[in-house]
Amino acid sequence: MSSIPSVRPLAEIRTEIDAIDAEILRLINRRAQCAEEVAKAKIADGEQGTFYRPDREAMVLRRIKDLNRGPLPDPTAMRFFRELMSACLALEKPLEVAFLGPEGTFSQQAVFKHFGSSVNTQPVAAISDVFNAVELDKCHFGVVPVENSTEGVINHTLDRFLMSPLRICGEVEVRVHQNLMGHAASLSEIREIFSHQQSLAQCRLWLDRHLPQVKVTAVSSNAEAARLASLDKHAAAIAGVAAAEVYQLPVLETSIEDQANNTTRFIVIGKQDSAPTGKDKTSLVFSTGNQPGALYKALESFAKFGIGMVNIESRPSRQGLWEYVFFIDIDGHGADPKVAEALGLLRANVNMLKLLGSYPKAVL
Amino acid sequence: MSSIPSVRPLAEIRTEIDAIDAEILRLINRRAQCAEEVAKAKIADGEQGTFYRPDREAMVLRRIKDLNRGPLPDPTAMRFFRELMSACLALEKPLEVAFLGPEGTFSQQAVFKHFGSSVNTQPVAAISDVFNAVELDKCHFGVVPVENSTEGVINHTLDRFLMSPLRICGEVEVRVHQNLMGHAASLSEIREIFSHQQSLAQCRLWLDRHLPQVKVTAVSSNAEAARLASLDKHAAAIAGVAAAEVYQLPVLETSIEDQANNTTRFIVIGKQDSAPTGKDKTSLVFSTGNQPGALYKALESFAKFGIGMVNIESRPSRQGLWEYVFFIDIDGHGADPKVAEALGLLRANVNMLKLLGSYPKAVL
Question: Which CDD domains does the record associate with it (chains A, B) (predicted)?
């Protein structure tokens, strides 16, 4: 707008803001009362276990996105309601969520992004322990990493799924960053860069552009790289921020990874199935025999019904020579008629088929 | 309640929740419009620089606490409005806040706790750089650690203040934890514990109770402790979670510090003064001569007017032999008549007096 808008006096605007705040406060508390009532209604219906419903939460957030006319951006409004639902749920029964610790990691970020901050997080020492915690009812849900956009699939998680009765009931993506750290006063003082080979690969373009003449040395881990960099003021390391904190290394450049969308995908595991929301994914694992074209024939089931495949990953099975299992994510919910038909056809063409779960696509 | 409450059907409650959500969404957006109007009114009044007002934010949060009747707990409701104010402010002009990096540290937690998550955080390499960033207008505000409840005062911050024209405009406290980490399958397998002397001291009671027979070795840093622990499955380290992440050490026990209230206090530095809110602190630094009783006489100024002293810290001045400067936090705002009188009296009894700022006491 080029015209100068007429404005009310500051005091008048603030009086309106105070009135709005009081009304928002009343409404969020009224919403919390309703949530308590929902919990009671569920208990009356004999549904104690299902007080957290990922499908319902996904639909609430998508509705907020549809209704939002601004000026607050959609992600801001959605985060707001994510926190509100989290707080309402915690009133009734705080969710216990296991994750691959320690606290402060990307895994914990994923927990908060999916469940909001009003949950109790239980750090455990290994991916398998996340499964254990949920299988043994020590936690309601678990969050495990399943895929990094640069490093690929996290095999521990897939292997553990083969032995678990747990279901996937959600997914969440978290951005991860690489950083250049060291005691050099400027980039021009750096003579050597240490990092793990994988991290070096993730930052190759940045290094070529900014430090083309500098010696690059691959070491066993980013932790070792940070340690070496801490000993020499002409050395630098590429590593995550935790390493900089541990070695008190100044961060010289942040987010130097070449792929701007360097993300880690996490899945939420639990004991309950998620109802269809209209925008769902289904994860499954199957194995075929060794006859030629077996995988092709299996995948035909999805093509025939026009079902999109999001991911496919093959892993050696531990149960027989030359046998592979395939992990696949497809579009749609197992309760969708087309998906159900495709899965029926697939089942006829494979040795083993296990549905890992249908769940809402990541919303935030 | 012992009687079974009568409950509405689930669908009916959800219909009400959906209606409440739509109304909350409308109100938070209306609030954002009002915030935009406030910014315009301030520009019309020639007040561009003061779009963020720590005093106003503190008063909004305290009012929420006063008005809140639950069922949402006060801290939950206040965090909600903290985020809402942060999001509203970001619409107009996202705040740039410098902090002692890297990202993911307690310092960044302090930034988000004070400003909400809708700010741009700028990690810098040293405490002095936080001051530089604000002094040179690269950032609107900075957040620096000033005191750890176990380790004491952070001297870098106090020393830098002596040379800076910046003002303190807020404070924020963050809980910090110590953790036991290592590859041992259980505590009974641990033969040796490494940590920095200070961290060992923070966990002495816990160690006496749980691992009284284990050899304890002080090393130069918690990073080194974690590295040593990573090499020996019968060793463990006491360190922050970042070290566990860097060395992929399972966290065996979390929060083993003896003092449950192990906190780090941060202050917010900027160029503007904060108006009185009724619950404020004032920070100041002064120096006395070397005559006996000089400090006592200086402090009499506060006693005489019944003003509480929260902290006092002495530091050697760099300007003369045997000269000390004293950093003091007192209750009240510099604009309060009693505080103003006490400061006037103090000024007459000291060689140098510098007011660092009056600001609202930490709210969350």
Answer: ACT_CM-PDT (cd04905), PBP2_PDT_1 (cd13630)
What are the CA-CA distances from residue B256 to residues A65, B193, B301 (Å)?
43, 13, 42
Judgement on whether residues B120 and B136 belong to the same structural domain of the protein: yes
- Domain total in chain B: 4
Q: Specify the pLDDT at position B41.
A: 82
B266: annotated active-site residue: yes
State the best of B4, B34, B57, B219 to mutate against chain A, taking most chain A CBs within 10 Å: B34
**Statement to judge: residues A41 and A84 lie in one domain:** yes
Most B CBs within 10 Å, among A18, A23, A28, to test the B interface = A28
Instruction: Quote the domain boundaries for residue A306.
Output: 273-364
Query: Using N-to-C axis directions, what is the helix angle for A222-230 and B222-230, rounded to 10°?
Result: 140
A175 sits in which H/E element = strand A167-175
User: pLDDT confidence of A2, banded at 50, 70, 90?
Assistant: very low
Catalytic site residues of A?
A: 264, 266
Residue B51 has a CB neighbour count (10 Å cut-off) of: 16
CB contact under 8 A, A63 and B118: no
- Residue A43 sits in a domain whose CATH number is 1.20.59.10
CB-CB under 8 Å, A22 with B27: no
In chain B the beta strands, taken as DSSP E runs, fall at: 96-100, 120-124, 141-148, 152-153, 167-175, 179-182, 192-196, 215-219, 235-239, 251-253, 263-270, 280-287, 309-316, 324-331, 352-360
CATH label of the domain that carries residue B157: 3.40.190.10
Domain boundary among A191, A224, A253: A253
Partners of B60 on chain A (C-beta within 8 Å) are 17-18, 21
Domain boundary among the residues B116, B134, B166 is at: B166
Pair A242, A317 in one domain: no
The predicted-structure confidence for A318-356, as pLDDT tens digits, reads as follows 655 456 788 899 999 999 999 999 999 999 888 889 999
Cβ–Cβ gap B29/A69 under 8 Å: yes
Q: What is the band of B319 on the pLDDT scale with cuts at 50, 70, 90?
A: low
Nearest-Cα residue of chain A relative to residue B77: A25
- Mark yes or no for CB contact B24/A28 under 8 Å: yes
Q: What is the pLDDT of residues A167-226, one digit of tens each?
A: 999 999 888 788 899 999 899 999 999 998 778 888 888 999 999 989 999 887 777 888
